[in-house]
Amino acid sequence: MSTNVVPGGQKAANTPSNNVALVFGAAFALRLGLLNLPAFPSILADQVEISTPITSFKRLSEGVFLFRNGVPPYDGGVFHQAPLLLGLFYLIINSPPLVNALYILVDLAIGYMLLQITAIKERDSTSEKKIMQYGDKTEESGMSGLTVASLYLFNPFTIVSCIGKSTILFSNMAVVAGIWMGMKRNKGLAMFSIALATYLSFYPAMLMIPVVLMLTRGDIGKQQQKRISVQCGALFLACLISLFLLSFVLVDSWSFFSGVYGTILAVTDLTPNLGLLWYFFIEMFDHFRSFFLIVFQLHVFIFAVPVSIKLWKYPLFVSFILCAIMGTFKGYPSIGDAALYLGLLPLSSEIFKYMRYTFLVVNLFLYSSLLAPIFWYLWVYVGSGNANFFYAIGLVYGIGEIILMIDTTFAICRRDFEILSPPETSGDPASLGWDREVVQK
Amino acid sequence: MRPRAILKHLTITTVIGAFITSVLAASVTTDTSTENVEGFFNKTRSGHTNNWAVLVCTSRFWFNYRHIANTLAMYRTVKRLGIPDSNIIMMLADDVACNSRNIFPATVYNNRGRYLDLYGENVEVDYRGYEVTVENFIRLLTGRVAKETPRSKRLLTDDQSNILVYMTGHGGEDFLKFQDAEEISSYDLGDAFQQMYEKKRYNEILFMIDTCQANTMYTKIHSPNILATGSSELSQSSYSHHDDPDIGVAVVDRFTYYVLEVLEKIDMQSKATLKDLFDTYNPKLLYSNPGVRSDLFHRPLDQALLTDFFGNVQNIELTEPKDHSSSTLATEGDSVSTQQVEIGTEVEGPSVLQIQPDHTDNNNTETLHQQQGSKQPHARERVEDHTFEVGDSSQSQNWRYVAFVSLSVVLGGALIAGSSMI
Amino acid sequence: MRPISGQMLLSTGVLLCIASSLSTIADASQQALHVKETVPILKAPEAFHEQLVLKPLNDGGAYSHFQFTTHIGTMMDEEHFDGAASNLFSHYNLFPRSIGQILHSFEVEELHLTFTQGRWQYSDWGYPLAPSVGTGVELWAWLNNNRLQAEGNWRGLTNTLSGLFCASLNFIDDTISIEPKLSFRNEGLYNVHSSKLSPSNTTSTTPRKLRYGSLPHENVCTENLTPWIKLLPCKSKSGIASLLKSHKLFDTRFYSMAIHVRPVCEDDKCKVKSLELVQTITTVFDVARQDGSYDWSLSSLFEREITQACPLASTSNIIVHLPQTTQFDKQYELTPMLPEGRYTIGSDENKQEIAVYDLKKAYSGDTSSSSEPFKLSMQWESSRPKSVQPISPGIVAHRYFTGYGQERGGLSIEIYNNDSQDVEAVLLDTLPWYLKLYLHTFTVHLNDQLLENYRDIVKKMYYQQAVDRARPAVLELALNLPSHSKIKFSISFDKVFLKYTEHPPDANRGFDIGYAVITVPLARQKGQIGYGSVDHLRIYQGRDASLVQSRRLSTQQQEGNDDDNETDKVRIYTETLLLSLPTPDFSMPYNVITLTCTVIALFFGSMFNLMTRNFEVVGSDKTKGKDKEKKDE
Q1: Boundaries of every domain in chain B
Q2: Residue C222 is nearest to which of B121, B326, B378, comparing CB atoms?
Q3: Which segments of the protein form a coiled coil according to its record (chain A) (predicted)?
Q4: A141 backbone dihedrals φ, ψ, rounded to 5°
Q5: 432-491 in chain C: CB under 8 A from chain B
Q6: HSE of C67 in the Cβ direction (CA atoms, 13 Å)?
Q7: Cβ–Cβ under 8 Å, residues C615 and C633
Q8: Cβ partners under 8 Å of residue C448, min gap 6
Q9: Which of A114, A166, B45, C589 is the most buried (most CB within 10 A)?
């Protein structure tokens, strides 16, 4: 009956902080161990599911090498990553231990940030009305911060993406940092993080909306909300422009625009990946290419506003769903994108009980993850399969992601309905509980 | 006074009279020559002044040797009957003569006895290998070729050209395969011919096709003055004639073989007609039913000569004299008109077409690549140089990096300070 | 009035007649005057020379090298000579008009076009006499760039040459053309636009642009030979060119056919200049294939006979390089053997013995049309070559792919330096854009040991990055090859996944990757017949070997090179390679579009559904009636 009022982050940290240290230590050790295996990291880095043309570490090394030797890295068709990554790796690219340490640190930082976000969310939820489950039983509280962090840190997708040194990790870190700062109501850093994420991989621009929702959540007047929103917009632009200027200072030309964002948007490199676009544009005739390209890129962005309007009360979930949309329909999706949204999903753990197709989704993810490398090998190395094998398993993976998104959206809508019209107000006996039948109209 | 005046008058009248008679004589002679000219351009006559041939082999790979042999046999026939190389466009999708599988290098034979080397010493292949595509073929017919296309790859016909279009390869119902990768449909062909008709690019066309289900390819043609013949009907295949055990593959197709049998017997002066050719079609020998479509052809078939299409016998065309003043004041001995005699020589086509018709779309200035279909921005001249020396990192690089690091530190500090304030 | 009118009529008529005739005369004379205005100031003789060089190879094959040189006639003095704009190309006598028009309209100063079939075996046959022996078609030209229209001119040049030679040269476009920085320097004996050689030259130094392109998969056949023969003054009717029979020429182990056009000097001081067109055919006959015997004769090789020298030729020679035997002299017998036509150049290891047969002299007395065919044959003792001095070429290069699978691979180039000295070489490698090179994986192995710091061997490295569907990758290295060593360069690459329409019709065959070119200076003794550029081929003309040497020395001195020995720049060509790229399923375009769009529509529909519809409670079993509550959001 008595709800456990969690006074805040400190309390969460006090409850066994050894656990936290244990979890993070184990994650650190695991990654360190795997990275130091002789051939494993390079095998993973070569897999197309893990590294795409815009996140590949091999291409980053090539870019840094060219940059160090006086050849403009954006003059050719190999390097398509943001110039700040060149700056980041300029000094450390030749020493593997430092690079490994950087990746491990970034991964752990994301885990830590998820921990903090959960703490803030728990603090917020104490002031909310609790949902009754069956009569007088209140809803169970959501997952603890440690669970969320460990779900992220020990997710095989995350580990594999870290070992493969995919640079999507930095974009993921910027996204999670933006969400954290948004929850902490720190406008400047939140907008900077989102600007950084946009700068690195362009699609997180639409995450600005949920972050603004986070910044203006709670009991704040409309005027104040508008003011904050406008301030955030200006901050976002200012940060983005300063990032571009910084890049110009580094590479001394503006050609990185077409090299980075041109490739991201125009999908010029058709290396296969777990997305839906590569085979489509391989088989497409040139005549229709621009039309479908524009449609597909628009498709990624058009859900931002409607979802945010409908689910404005749940900005954490909105950020999850937008990351999932990004991770499914962007030009070059990879396992790293899946790691991001699967890490954000436990932040809305209350909706799990309303999900209907969990078993199906888990199976689809499992099947596609196991079969994709096999079909790839059959096509590209053995020659006994053809491109359709890998394309089909990419479709299965996409369907898995889509069912996950639809199911979770259904779940949050259902939960929203539950909050707004609990059984007692609708005249139903309270014993009906939260799983009464509803229908969509 | 009087006799002088009379003399004067007499001289004047004689001069004027002579002048008038000369003019009349000139006109009379032109009249008679006009009659001769009209005799050339009877309704029963073709009305063409030059001949062109477009010979297309659309098959690739060694086992389609016979298609190349078919086309080369046709090439040799039209050359023998007078059409010069400059008026023949030959498209061969593969090279079998110098193929490493050919044990008789630089030769192509279309019979087992290897009596005649079709390749010979003097052969001109205009489109070869990967250049033989549907796009190039249709561009060739309609004249919408790229600006840089050389003269030997253009079909420079006018409204008095008779064109022989011969195609061979693998086909099916309403389509013909190009190089096993793409197809041309009968609708495309009909449209191409209609464009040619609208642009007045032909006088008459003989369209001959030797593939499986060939007759379906000419069912969608709807332009006048086109006579079409094919080797087999719908749902029938065309067969090869025989093979050569030394070369290892079939060397000629049945339809072409029997058509060549007829053509080998005629020469430049022959009066054999197309009806004679079509009468020799024997489904029992061909194992298929060849067909003829003559509803679009205005002349009766028994008056259309074989050499109207396969040869280059031309009539003389008299044109208007260029300079009117000189003709009226010239004496009778002067030239009446400038005669343009076009007989099958090495000279390129009629002088009317010195200007190369440039029918490229303004939007479509891409060069004719074929499988490497890249669009190049022609308007932009490439001035920059993209070759760089790979050396040790220069000093300026390091300085730039230092500037970058310091600037980023400054901006980061400003951000953190600012965010705590806001 | 009457007399006036009559007289007027008569007089006007006469006047008009006179006027018209005068006008026509004036017209004609004006045209004549037009021509006479631009009379050349200096004149150099037009000349045509033909040679055939025969050389038995180590393994018994017969190497034949046809060479036809034509010089164009009228010249101007220095101030007016501009190959592009002068009326150099208004009067053609021996020089073929088709080539002249091409040079004129596309402002080409130097042109080199080669068609090759087969691969030159350096280890067995040594260096070839022809400068370019890379498989496929090679085209490179120096274009005058004064109006920045080099791109348009290059495109026009490739298309026009494709029409002239019946080859698919129009495929040489921006995705294949490159501009090498160190290789393929111009071979003209003087630089038209340079101020160095002629101090009185007041013309500005107009820049010139080098464009190079090659098609490794282009095949050569009779339709390419036919227009080539038509460029010769005598065609194949008389003279040495009458030996050119396609059935035998294409039945060889190696066949290469080329035209080289470049500006040359006619005298020592380069006062008189001319344009030189050199046409060469190089073949290696597999002599023993017919009956196991290594004896050959002109008729057995070519199945044709020479019955007279070309009347338009100034010189007409057949030159035989006599094989150097290690043991005794009478290993072979060459008939006819003319004692006065035999020369020995060099000494010991580099000894060259050549026998020269002058056809002009042989047929000078004969004016009748029927004359005896020229007979030349070589018989070996017991029909096999024995104890022939082995050829050891100084530099040998090979290139091959490494790795497996259709996703990535590696490229390795091995260069063997068998000389006893260090050699400075330039390596040029062009890789198409569908190979993404990783320059940071570039490694150098010296004698199979990895070099950490390869700056001793690779002096300079120039790199042009490939851009998808726009430019190829170019790697040009200035090397210093140590003596008696093997150097291996390796680099790894990723294979690009091409679009459906970018695959050729026979997609599973793969793509041909063109050769790498290594330019090596080769020293030779004074007066010897060397290899490499077109320069030394003039020596066969017998006329101005000394002229070539003096010009070369003067240019070398101007460049600061004071060697006594002369050096040729030999180009060594590696093999072409075949690369298989992963192919999509070509039967699937509509299926793919349908399936992908279905998946996306599945998401869109469901999401739209969820966004726009609200929940309602369905009546439970326990309550009667329906409780419906709609919540407005």
Answers
A1: 50-310
A2: B121
A3: none
A4: -75, 160
A5: 439, 460-465, 469-471, 474, 476
A6: 27
A7: no
A8: C486, C488
A9: A166
With contact defined as 3+ CB pairs under 8 Å, the chains touching A are B, C
Which domain does A187 fall in, by range? 25-341
Query: pLDDT by residue (tens digit) across B88-104?
Result: 999 999 999 999 999 99
Q: Do B419 and A90 touch (CB under 8 A)?
A: no
Q: Is C163 on the interface with B (CB under 8 A)?
A: yes
In this predicted model, what pLDDT tens digit does every residue of C239-274 receive, in sequence order? 999 999 999 999 999 999 999 998 877 666 666 677
3 state DSSP class of C302: helix
- Whether A126 maps to a domain, the answer reads yes
Taking residues C518-530, report their average pLDDT: 70
Helices H / strands E in chain C, number of each: 10, 28
ipTM of the complex: 0.90
The pLDDT of residue C90 is: 67
Return the pLDDT at B34.
56
CB C410 within 8 A of CB C493: yes
Output the six-digit token pair for A374: 């096999």
Q: Give the angle A357-A362-A364 at the CA atoms, nearest 5°.
A: 95
Q: Is pLDDT at B82 greater than 80 in this prediction?
A: yes
Q: Which amino acid is at C310?
A: C
Q: What is the pLDDT of residues B7-37, one digit of tens each?
A: 888 878 777 777 776 666 555 554 555 555 5
Do C44 and C274 form a contact (C-beta atoms < 8 A)?
Answer: yes
CB atoms C463 and B382 under 8 Å: no
**Structural domains in chain A (count):** 1
DSSP string, C503-546: S-SSGGG-EEEPPEEEEEEEEE-TT----SSGGGGGGGGSS-HH
Predicted TM-score (pTM) of the model is 0.84
With the CA atoms of C471, C472, C478 and C484 taken in that order, what torsion angle do they form, in degrees rounded to the nearest 10?
Answer: 180
Residue count (chain B): 422
Q: Between β-strands B127-128 and B88-92, what pairing exists: parallel, antiparallel or unpaired?
A: parallel
Averaged pLDDT score across all residues of chain C: 79
The C-alpha of B134 sits at a distance from chain A's nearest C-alpha, in angstroms, of 15
What is the structure's pLDDT at A96? Answer: 93
More confident residue, B419 or B50: B50
Domain topology for B50-310: Rossmann fold (3.40.50)
Q: Is C85 helix (H, G, I), strand (E, B) or coil?
A: coil
Q: Are B245 and B114 in contact (CB under 8 A)?
A: no
Angle between helices A145-153 and A17-35 (to 10 degrees): 0
Q: Is C480 helix (H, G, I), strand (E, B) or coil?
A: strand
Per-residue pLDDT band for C548 (boundaries 50, 70, 90) equals very low
Question: Best of B364, B384, B401, B407 to disrupt the A interface by mutation (most A CBs within 10 Å)?
Answer: B401
